[in-house]
Amino acid sequence: MDEKAPAGRLPERDRPWVMRTYAGHSSAAASNALFRRNLAKGQTGLSVAFDLPTQTGYDPDHELAAGEVGRVGVPVAHLGDMRALFDGIPLADMNTSMTINAPAMWLLALYGTVAAEQGAELARCAGTTQNDIIKEYLSRGTYIFPPAASLRLTADLVAYTLLRMPRWNPVNVCSYHLQEAGATPVQEVGFALATAVAVLDAVRDCGQVPPGRMGDVVARISFFVNAGVRFVEEAAKMRAFGVLWDEIARDRYGVTDPRQRRFRYGVQVNSLGLTEAQPENNIQRIVLEMLGVTLSRDARARAVQLPAWNEALGLPRPFDQQWSLRMQQVLAYESDLLEYPDLFAGSHVMTALVDGIVTGARAELEKVLEMGGVVAAVESGYLKSALVASLAERRRRLESGADTVVGVNRFTETEPSPLTAAGAGSIEQVDPAVEAAAVTAVREWRAGRDDAAVDAALERLRADAATTANLMPATLECVRAGVTTGEWAGALRRVFGEYRAPTGLAGGTGAGGDATLAAVRERVAATARELGSGRLRLLVGKPGLDGHSNGAEQIAVRARDAGFEVIYQGIRLTAGQIVAAAVEEDVDLVGLSVLSGSHLAVVPAVLDGLRAAGRGDLPVVVGGIIPAGDPDALRAAGVARVFTPKDFALTGIVDDLVTVVRHANGLG
Question: Catalytic residue positions?
């Protein structure tokens, strides 16, 4: 740019945001190779996806890990895995984001130990641990401990990083998953800020941080947001976030430095908004969603990671991730976006949109605080019920046609897509041998340790957990002794206990105005009469570690509205637990929801369990992200129906469930 910029332009072009792709699968070595390739293509930061066993504190050889190892991220069971994951990548020079929550302390301890082994100064290491446990109770489902204990771990990590890793963001408050769970922009902002207040209050009250350092704490709190396709509204939402965050930091925590009050956020655009039908349309969706968090200079994301066009089909390939990275690079380096001041300054339209979101979100925040804070709002079920109800309304608008999704409920005529012509070849495939190798490797790791050192480290961790001591020193001792992820989490489970979050179904209803529901309700009642039972009974099960429960909850709500009695016990169930519930509740149908890719392992386990229990006659249906070819394998195993994201009409699905029950019982 010329030394004297033309009127209206910046004197110097802005630096681009940190560009990431969310990556990790199969094994630490395979993920390391993927990281290196992405960095060579111009990616400027790392965003590590961990597999579900790692996220929920289990080793690869645990019963619940079956079918889940290496599927939606990289398995990291011990220090050796972390060394392999970052082999040859200088952590002192890298900005690393880690999507890890309940075991965030453990993963940061592993990361910091590897960085120190590389010779890095911890004070120079930059990056983020997601570490927002509240949204796990509401959306993603990878919580382990009760809310109070989880917040204690978060506060300990904040206090540790403040002193030892001052460039690290110890918590990344996530509104991203709230939007996926149904939140409106107002709810997304209000509920996320309520979480941030809970974290900051816990840090302020833990006694580990001097009152004069709260400004430094606030300055390291970052946010992780979702950007939907309504990109003008999304831009307003981000500006509203900044207004309210500045207000909270100044008025609640007394932060006087405006730089410390700046709203800092990274973004991934809306993965669950991507469609299986006409997936090529996802390309333009991703671009528009990226604009929502980059157009406004005053509210621009610090880091952006984009999903791939085929995430509704399965795990993206390296080429698909490259395509998404190139979208960012074209915007940042080819367009003139970074040459101008804020494009919305002085806009009456944007000001009105921002004011509306600020007013509504402030009211939501005040309501949660009046309830006693976000933990009380989680434990009472208020937040989950509000999200389930909002998502049900969103589904109603989609099904009625009030909201258009191109290729799904409108403009559905299409030509065959060359992008998906390869079938299952259009997504990354995880070799089943990966899990067996991980199981063998973790057992070999355990066999090669000093057992006395491991026992002593775990005993210290349990003892410290029973006090108010910061748990990071004990965790670091566990890392150095060779403790595994499952052992670390298991020790804390013994002290803190585990937790099952409210399902939010009690207040959910979502079929108002659906004219076809009355006919389905009559079919449900007629079938129950013909079977001589009071009501048809549906068990909705979430086998394995997949915690994305939105789809299962919406099916449960609609089935209940249609007259089914619904048994839903929440997430993370073993095949044995699902079978036992099906037998004890004497259900007419079992519906399994799996979005993690583990369906070929966990579904047959349930079918085998039902046969062993003498209920092989009980029909089973499956819903989730099921790649091409896999539905045939599931049906061959005995599944009656397979539903995927293209089956968006919930009342139609419930009608099909009635048909399944009738056929299984010999009714016409």
Answer: 22, 176-177, 542, 546, 548
